[in-house]
Amino acid sequence: MLKKIFLFFLVFYFFYSCETTDNYIKKDIDEQEKAIEMGKETEENTILKKETAIKYDTQKLDSDTIAIIGKYILTKEKYKVITDYMKEKFNYTLTPEQEKEFMEYLVNKKLLAIEARKSGYAEKKDIQIKYEWDFDDIISHEFYNDYVEKKSKVTEIEAKSYYEKNRSDFVEVKAQHILIKNKNTANNLYQRIKKGESFDDIAKNYSEDETTKTSAGDLGYFTKGMMVKEFENAAFSLSVDEVSEPVKTIYGYHIIKVNDKRKISFDDSKDKIIKMMREKKKKEIFENLINKIKSENQVIINENYMK
Fold it and tell me: What Cα–Cα distance (Å) separates residue 54 from each residue in 21, 50, 101, 189, 252?
């Protein structure tokens, strides 16, 4: 999808933002040819007739210069910054053919910007506000990358240390449950199971969880953080083949049976641990940074906008 958006972005600007593209020239030439056929050739038609396309001057420049557009010099360094930024923004790498189209788009965009400045657009208040916002967006993003993202990296050693300290969290439980909305009914069913009735049969006949009742309430394997807290606490505290008393959650009352427990290795957990630790570290660094900046800069917001 991003590729399509970027291509649309290029095509739209390339053909819409500059009336010197081949499409417009072809349109004008077609109209001119019709005028000639009708015997209405004008001076403008004659000029257009001699031109088949707008061509840019080309000449050998020094090795660091890609193009000269008016007084603007497009260096290799500038071009790399621009293309890297576009790749980052649209997650898309141009083919060599698309690079040529992009170069023409870039030139046309710069030419329009030169003319816009001549016409006073750089002094327009609304444009200055948009520019300020876009510029702040770019520099704040770069600052965030340097002072938050890059400082939030988590090593494999740190992840391993976390795993060793929290081994009890790295367990998978295989369980089934019976969900009942009424407390008394749930208690009665629990007593029947305790007396020896089949958990599977009661689950299939009485559970109000329509998605699992046909499979006797089978939930498969799950880890901590996947279920609501009350359910999770009960399930992970049970031994294999043990059945819980009815556990209340926002969904009703659950009778839980644990069928298996197995440890999750560090190798299977590593990526998840690193991601979790990274997000936590990122949040802490960001909050500390923002609080520091807030303490140095007064912020007052109109109360009318906070209602």
Answer: 7, 11, 15, 84, 73
